[in-house]
Queue: 2 jobs
Job 1
Amino acid sequence: MKCFLLLVLVIGLDLSSANSIPSYNHYRLPTALRPQKYYLRILTLLESPDDLRFVGNVQIVIEALKNTRNITLHSKNLTIDESRITLRQISGASNKDNCVSSTSVNPTHDYYIMHTCEELLAGNVYKLGLPFSADLTRQLFGYYLSSYKNPVTNKTRWLSATQFEPSFARKAFPCFDEPGFKASFVVTLGYHKQFKAISNMPVREIRKHESLQNYIWCEFQESVPMSTYLVAYSVNDFTFKPSTLPNGALFRTWARPNAIDQCNYAAEFGPKVLQYYEEFFGIRYPLPKIDQMAVPDFSAGAMENWGLVKYRESTLLYSPNHSSLADKQDLANVIAHELAHQWFGNLVTMKWWTDLWLNEGFATYVAGLGVQKIHPEWDSRDKSSLVALMASFRLDSLVSSHPISRPIRMVAEIEESFDAISYQKGSAVLRMMHLFMGEESFRTGLKEYLKLYAYKNAEQNNLWESLTTAAHQNGALAGHYDINTIMDSWTLQTGYPVLNITRDYSAGTAEITQERYLRNSQIPQADRVGCWWVPLSYTSREENDFNTTAPKAWMECSSTDEGVPTIIDHQAGPDEWLILNIQLSTPYKANYDARNWKLLIDALNSKEFESIHVINRAQLLDDVLYFAWTGEQDYETALQVTNYLRRERDLIPWKSALDNLKLLNRILRQTPNFGSFKRYMKRLLTPIYEHLHGMNDTFSSMPQQDEVLLKTTVVNVACQYDVSDCVTQAQAYFRRWRAEANPDENNPVPLNLRSTVYCTAIGQGTEEDWNFLWTRYRKSNVGSERQTILSTLGCSKEVWILQRYMEKSFDPKSAIRKQDSSLCFQAVASGQVGFLLAKQYFIENVELIHKYYYPQTRTMSRLLTPLSEQVSTLSDLKKFRSFANDSRQLLKGIRQAMQQSLETMLTNVQWMDWNYHQFSRTIRRHL
Ligand SMILES: *[C@@H]1O[C@H](CO)[C@@H](O)[C@H](O)[C@H]1NC(C)=O
Ligand SMILES: *[C@@H]1O[C@H](CO)[C@@H](O)[C@H](O)[C@H]1NC(C)=O
Ligand SMILES: *[C@@H]1O[C@H](CO)[C@@H](O)[C@H](O)[C@H]1NC(C)=O
Ligand SMILES: *[C@@H]1O[C@H](CO)[C@@H](O)[C@H](O)[C@H]1NC(C)=O
Ligand SMILES: *[C@@H]1O[C@H](CO)[C@@H](O)[C@H](O)[C@H]1NC(C)=O
Ligand SMILES: *[C@@H]1O[C@H](CO)[C@@H](O)[C@H](O)[C@H]1NC(C)=O
Ligand SMILES: [Zn+2]
């Protein structure tokens, strides 16, 4: 082994300290060259803990489109053996050797530039060979190291994994690392024969290593043309569970051997949803096989690499004895998301990261359809739509939000795009389109688009063209409308509108105006500009049609992009309510005149409240609580709406309300008037808590699965507000668990109550309780259970325990994996005592935290959310502002997230200034 390494004559190349002035400084690669094919050989050394590294050689077949004297590609933290670079012309009249005369680097854009001896000529094809090597690090990006403990031998087992999206293939091998440079890949992996290897494609051939004893080379079949960020491989000692799909691709689910029994659900669900997409998109899954793999250390939730999808353990592995229904639904959603990418993203890829939302919005939206199809009994589609809408409403009401389609000039900016705007708002605007165009046009347009751009790259305009054609053909859109104009107003502009609806009660009409909705009420009217093309769907009490989501009218924008006030003729009688936005099909907020709100409030607070569609009940709650926050409505009106929740028995409105009320809780629990709020919440929650039999284990008799989730959701808040017997029951369950002789085998706490029980017991509990749960974490073999425990360990109210827990979270030597550290911090920071500590800890230890995540400091943004929701005093806001300023350098990677957090904090301070007293007076009237 050593001897092999000695053969390599290494010329160290320190990219970071290169001080040559870059001659090419554009953020995109030159377009003179196009890679056609990569032959990638990588030898991975995993046997000795002191020598974990890889040694590789890549041969790239490159077509010259223009004459050029240099080859510029990406390479980051790779040691390239410059003495052995080869370059040869392999086409044209005379195949002849060329060479590299000198090299330079541009560390800003990770460029590695080779100046060629002879000019490369347009039309010719060349083969470039680059030998390289690097250490396998524990960074979770590029080609990296993961590990797990074999429970029998108690030995650490090493494995390697890749994570290349968006721009880390360049850390694994030199390449043209932009999504537009699609090429085919022939991957060959070398490794000790005790391991196995998997990659995008099936194995073609295995042969002995030419010199290293006990080493083999495993060559995989040539891939279809694809982007570098989708390349994947892994060397490991995992086992797999096969699935069989009639006439389908070979489908396998991989995990470490002692977790293989948790693969059954994924192995069953994956192929079903894959088959659904084949029908939905009208295109067969193009590869001969697909593997899904649970990686013990994984930063994202999952990654859609073509033919080799990688997951966290908690998003792929399911244990009937340890995972809750919510866990199961989450993992179904993640699998459905990644498999949707096999078409949207892998087959047709965005030209540039500006259109990342096309990938992510689609996968998010279509996953909801896939899960609904395979598990109709969960009835989860409306819930996932609502979750997407609520997340985008929240972030997108900030001035510091950004458009869905976002110019990208730096790698760091690409990473910032993986947020709620790309995923959830992207999904919401696609759903809007689906609902206003109708099933037929939407599907036809999509299929056409996928067919046109298969194995190529596309931009959003390409999609709009296909959809416009389909919609016109189907008559789903008037001839003078095009999808382009409509959708540009949603994807190129930041934010979303609020519609003011003013009824004329005698004429049966209403006037509608629009402006941008902002949570920061200090922003003057003049800055709330913008115009959105809004499909107007509506119904009244009499008509009661909540099925038709096709618009009855459109709100248009003038040629100067100003909103044109629109009159609709709705024909609702003067005593009937009117509701806009059927099933919340378009992401906007609707504010009515006082009389219509009164009619709606009366309907909600009557036996007929269910005559309003369940999603629209969620909409009314969400809208009115936003409006009360920003002053368009008062809290009297808002509380008259929320009062009806005493009748509500459906999950979706509860989710909407609780999400909003949680924000009030986070601020109010730090004030002397929290008592009234708590009494109000108890009053709202008691009827449903009793209705669901509280903490009693009634799950086996529940006919509806969504009732399980409702119960999980309700008991969780009920215990926080000390409703009924919630806390005492939770403590009793926990005591029974602690009394078990073998608590790792026997857990008497009902699966779907565990999170609530642990959190409540730890919150009220002793050091022994905490240590008991920590030991269960250490012994658990199930990813979702480990996550549940980590997030409930933060529920303690003991300062020293929380302090110790936070320190563990950022200690590389502790039992907490780097992938989970943000979860632990969030858990602490979400608690009322924990918040005070976490705030302090973050400010005082930002250097340590930065170092812990470096170079992936972007992960730090996950720590900000719970802090920003709770900072509500001017002095804290000032502290954070000056902290953000003083630590600019360390916070560089999370600039956007920091701005958004500061703005959220500001809106909290505004709430205290303007609403606190009004709210406190009002809520007392409702007790
Ligand atoms: C490499 O060649 C391209 C295309 O000919 C050119 O745009 C670029 O400036 C060159 N880069 C360097 C570092 O000379
Ligand atoms: C990249 O390599 C250089 C030199 O080998 C090293 O100093 C630097 O820390 C590395 N950066 C990362 C992010 O690993
Ligand atoms: C496994 O190793 C750890 C630490 O080295 C030790 O504390 C533990 O007792 C060992 N367990 C078994 C089952 O050998
Ligand atoms: C909408 O109504 C709000 C509150 O009544 C008002 O402040 C705003 O100016 C109105 N906007 C438009 C565009 O009419
Ligand atoms: C709306 O759709 C549901 C389910 O598809 C159906 O049961 C109901 O009858 C429809 N209502 C109207 C008014 O069309
Ligand atoms: C739970 O069950 C116990 C015993 O049957 C009963 O006394 C209690 O009222 C139940 N709690 C709720 C909230 O239904
Ligand atoms: Zn995705």
Job 2
Amino acid sequence: MSDYGFDTLLIHAGARPDPATGARQTPIYQTTAYVFRDADHAAALFNLQEVGFIYSRLTNPTVAVLQEKMATLEGGAGAVCCSSGHAAQIMALFPLMGPGKNVVVSTRLYGGSVTQFSQTIRRFGWSATFVDFDDMAAVEAAIDEDTRAIFCESIANPGGYITDLDAAAKVADKAGLPLIVDNTSATPYLCRPIEHGATLVVHSMTKFLTGNGTVTGGCVVDSGKFDWSASGKFPSLSEPEPAYHGLKFHETFGPLAFTFHGIAVGLRDLGMTLNPQAAHYTLLGIETLSLRMKKHVENAERVASWLEGHDAVKAVTYAGLPSSPYHDRVAQICPKGAGGLFTVTLKGGYEACVKLVDSLELFSHVANLGDTRSLVIHSASTTHRQLTEEQQKAAGAAPDVVRISIGIEDAEDLIRDLDQALAKATG
Ligand SMILES: *Cc1c(COP(=O)(O)O)cnc(C)c1O
């Protein structure tokens, strides 16, 4: 399969005609359980000696097609789908972390991720150290004996900042740690983090992958390249697992160790399962990913450069603009473009931002991104509301900033709508 071009893989990877019926489109296997051939078959499945379907909290044929597709598109060895992007982040960290362990994360993250990492994971005894990933010496300095992973976004939401993944991978390699990259804003169409040295790639499939605002879903793709047994730091993967009669995941499953653990322990015991209907919508969405991302990028480039020239605008963060300090990294990290997401800083501050959001007609005011529809949100009063002003600024969501997710409509119509709304916001 991997000999084929990316657009061919979007359609065909994982999605053979249905083996039971010949159905050409992947059916929705709306079932909770699967009949065992006999007692021996059941025992082999439960012992992980044979791969098959037991119960849909762990595995489901529709979800399995999506997992194979995601692994192929990202160039990974395997993938685990789960119920949301946030679930994917917990699923990625779960086999690596333990009480007292920490993850070194970028200050430029989706607001919900900042909250998850700075607050909620502490209930598990885990912690996160936040660092500016433009300063790799600081990233390196933040790593200590108890660090178990490094986490960043390829194109960081909401600011559209681009992370030097090759440099981050070098730091992770030197420390013997896995690099986890949230590739939600870029999608594998724009960026393939494993080619830049990432160990794991996490996604919110809720966004560009499904692409039309119908699904909440997530995914963890494993490169299959990390040696979980080298340091003794990852006992869940290298040491005997008591819940499977002392099975050692890395020794038994090699490059699929993380994926098998994610399903056999992660989904089994944490239960953050993706449902087959959601997997089906996501599979439909992925078929048109290239067509959509191309238009998202074209539109974002036009709208961002128009906004940059507008009197009411102080700054536009889009890395696709020649004025962006991240412009050089576009060629290195995401050569097909800087995505469809950026922020706009208005001279009129908080008040003007709120008026702009209320005056737009085509843009929908929602807490989502990566939809075919153009979307807008004032992050400081919504998604990033739980953060301190300092955290908001670091995340590119200061009070005078509006986040825009450019859809695939006609760019002229989007510009016309922004023009009338900016006039009201500043008039
Ligand atoms: C939306 C988003 C998430 C969280 O995903 P959900 O599917 O909403 O749980 C994580 N990271 C990024 C970059 C996102 O945009």
